[in-house]
Write a structure and sequence with these properties.
heterodimer, A: about 350 residues, mainly alpha, MetI-like fold, three-stranded mixed β-sheet, 12 helices, about 5% strand, B: about 400 residues, 2 domains
């Protein structure tokens, strides 16, 4: 009894030692640390929003990313734009109406006249003290939307990556371990999945199923898990399978299941973890593309923010409405980039040939 | 070996059959059908809608339609497009495919070449400040949210600066009284590009074994200049002179998509080359080369980069397979009328014959590529060969 306890403790300390050693190796890669900081930053953003709502610092009516609204009015001078340019005041057609001016032709019901000053709603409002990144055209806080978007991205990315890598690791190891018919079946199955073009396939699926975040995570995970990663993990598992310790486990009488789960799988796990980190990137990008094309049933995400900015015509207004265009696009880019850099760092930990020395 | 190939082909046919059935079921499961817009017309005579459905065979049960489609498919009959009625899917693909291939072949060749050069230098200068910054920039352009980036490029170069056109294949107003079809011009452009790249490739191959690195570089540069002068002469003489303005118009529309996709695609190659090159640099023969006192550049270009090329070439082959799949987004944003738009259009309009034809085109492409990859792996790696016999 005492012996067993001792053994467990030794195993525990060994594991701890391995983790601290790997962490030290990871810290050596500067880019990996940059990626980790970026990912951590977005993680803070995603958990900050519920905290702000719960503590009452932000009130739901104003800052809710989907239905929040706050009245922001500003004084505007009513002007009439001339028919021909240039005039004394305006050089080009795009200069009229200028700042704090409104063209009388675009007023629908107001009884303001040329030269008067009237109060109008200012949406999308530029960044101010209340709204750090301004508001969108419906008066919703952009910063709150970014936070909601990062929740969506984390949930979807990690869920679909876990599912996908789980499936592909299991299937890849089984294919390598048993070989023969099982292998042939699984490989042809992943051929079939690889043959279907991804984006059109997602279009079709979104046409007959109302995709919410959970559904999309399952769909992306399954497609990713059955596709090419099975083949890569299988080739890794094939290399593990011919190692001497697998043979000695078999000689000592280990069952197939025992060898598979306690000898082969743990040795494939590092590669699987690496795959997981990289497929988080893919999942976030796919979600953003789909909601950018307006095909998802998600209330708020980064892709949707860009989609709204595009359909409302703000994307070609250039940097005048930068808070509608830049934050969402940069968030997607930076979060996927962060995960990619973390993956690169892990690669250097698991693959000794990549290390500096 | 032959037994293995035979077995693979047999499996291939089954997979392709399953692929056809799966895609047909997928298309059928989209609610509605291609002719549902007719019902919006209040003046539609009674029975007309049902008649159209019966004409196209859409009133039959699913299983019957699948069997009919697959038997016709293997007879070589792909049906007619629902949307562009008198045209067949084959005609549509023949019209659209060259445009996609031209655009993306150019992008891929440029991005793989430059990406390989940059990645090589990145791995060589590992740990320096310039390496860190270039790597961060390439990671940024590799993971950038592509539709957003493309829109920003469109905004900057097309709208703000007004240097390049915003999307589309050509300016219609220039072609009103053109004596040629745009496809004729485009075919000429494709032929021209293919010949020029073959000449360039031949120059590259012939100078490959020259021992001195400096004279090799000079010869290559000289060949490149010769190629440019030759193409300049070609476009300014005879028949091609009249076609020049129209060809220029199409080329002008190609610039922005090519630049945008190249920026994104090049980073992937650079990062891949960087990783494989770092692995190669750890090998013993690099140490031997250093110990022999070879020059740094020779070690980098001859010993390390050549061996790092293998995974890059593999990834190049697999990228070519996914060209059509990957073109969907680019062609939608730049409104480039190629295969990607055709796929998207047919899927959204439920134009089943066209969608099935494009899907099976991609499928055959992918299957053959994987088959060739598998066979060559089996040829190179005895482990797989032994297993398949057992």
């Amino acid at each position: 009894m005492d012996n067993l306890k001792n053994e467990k403790e030794i195993a525990k300390s060994l594991r701890r030692k391995a983790i601290s050693k790997n962490w030290k190796l990871f810290k050596q890669s500067r880019l990996g640390m940059v990626g980790l900081i970026i990912v951590f930053f977005f993680f803070i953003l995603s958990i900050l929003q519920p905290i702000l709502f719960l503590t009452g610092i932000w009130d739901q009516g104003t800052y809710n990313p989907v239905v929040g609204y706050v009245d922001q009015t500003q004084d505007f001078l009513v002007v009439e734009c001339p028919k021909e340019f240039p005039t004394e005041k305006y050089e080009k057609r795009t200069d009229c109406p200028g700042r704090n001016e409104v063209n009388i032709k675009t007023l629908f019901y107001s009884d303001g006249e040329v030269g008067e000053t009237i109060q109008l709603n200012l949406q999308p409002a530029p960044p101010s003290r209340d709204h750090i990144l301004g508001t969108d055209s419906l008066g919703r806080d952009v910063f709150s939307q970014i936070m909601e978007g990062s929740q969506v991205a984390f949930l979807l990315g990690i869920l679909s990556a876990t599912l996908g890598v789980g499936i592909s690791t299991l299937l890849g190891t089984i294919a390598a371990f048993f070989g023969g018919r099982v292998d042939a079946y699984l490989m042809r199955q992943s051929d079939l999945v690889l043959m279907l073009p991804t984006l059109p396939l997602l279009f079709i699926i979104s046409a007959f199923a109302e995709l919410k975040i959970w559904h999309l995570a399952v769909v992306l995970g399954t497609i990713g898990g059955l596709g090419g990663s099975v083949i890569t993990i299988k080739s890794q598992a094939l290399q593990v399978k011919v190692k001497p310790f697998v043979d000695s486990a078999r000689i000592t009488g280990g069952s197939n299941m025992k060898i598979l789960f306690s000898h082969v799988l743990p040795n494939v796990a590092p590669l699987a973890l690496l795959f997981m980190v990289f497929s988080v990137t893919g999942a976030i990008a796919s979600e953003s593309v789909l909601s950018f094309l307006g095909l998802l049933n998600i209330e708020m995400s980064w892709g949707l923010m860009i989609y709204l900015a595009q359909v409302e015509g703000y994307i070609f207004s250039g940097l005048k409405f930068w808070w509608l265009i830049l934050p969402a696009g940069l968030s997607v880019t930076f979060l996927t980039g962060g995960f990619y850099l973390v993956g690169r760092g892990l690669d250097e930990v698991f693959n000794p040939r990549l290390r500096k020395r | 070996m032959y037994k293995y190939i035979f077995k693979r082909i047999y499996q291939l046919v089954i997979v392709f059959f399953l692929f056809l059935v799966t895609s047909y079921i997928l298309f059928d499961s989209i609610p509605g059908n291609a002719f549902q817009n007719m019902l919006l017309n209040p003046l539609l005579p009674p029975g007309a809608y049902e008649q159209v459905l019966a004409l196209y065979g859409l009133d039959k049960p699913l299983s019957e339609r699948i069997v009919l489609y697959i038997t016709n498919f293997f007879k070589g009959d792909f049906g007619y497009s629902y949307k562009y009625y008198p045209k067949t899917p084959i005609e549509l693909i023949a019209e659209r495919l060259p445009r996609t291939l031209m655009l993306f072949a150019m992008v891929n060749i440029v991005s793989f070449y430059t990406g390989f050069l940059v990645g090589k230098i990145l791995a060589w200068r590992r740990g320096s400040k310039s390496e860190t910054w270039i790597t961060i920039t390439s990671v940024f352009s590799y993971t950038v949210f592509y539709p957003w980036f493309a829109l920003m490029m469109l905004w900057f170069f097309g709208y703000k600066m007004d240097w390049l056109p915003i999307g589309k294949f050509l300016y219609p107003e220039k072609w009103y009284d053109a004596p040629f079809d745009s496809d004729v011009i485009f075919t000429l452009m494709i032929k021209f590009t293919v010949i020029v790249s073959i000449i360039q490739f031949l120059i590259y191959m012939f100078t490959r074994n020259i021992e001195s690195l400096n004279s090799k570089r000079n010869l290559r540069f000289f060949g490149f200049i010769l190629n440019i002068v030759g193409s300049f002469i070609f476009w300014n003489t005879g028949d091609a002179l009249t076609k020049k303005i129209y060809a220029m118009d199409i080329a002008y529309h190609m610039i922005l998509p090519v630049i945008t996709v190249t920026i994104v695609a090049f980073a992937g190659t650079a990062l891949l080359t960087r990783t494989t090159m770092m692995e190669v640099l750890k090998d013993d023969y690099i140490l031997t080369a250093r110990a022999k006192g070879l020059s740094q550049r020779r070690i980098r270009d001859r010993h390390a980069a050549r061996n790092a090329l293998l995974p890059v070439v593999t990834s190049f082959i697999f990228t070519i397979v996914t060209i059509i799949d990957g073109s969907v987004l680019t062609e939608t944003i730049f409104s480039w009328p190629g295969m990607g738009q055709l796929i998207l259009d047919s899927v959204l309009n439920e134009d089943i014959p066209v969608a099935m034809a494009t899907f099976s085109f991609i499928g055959v492409f992918a299957l053959v590529a994987h088959f060739i990859a598998d066979i060559s792996y089996a040829y190179l790696d005895p482990r797989i060969r032994i297993q398949s016999q057992g």
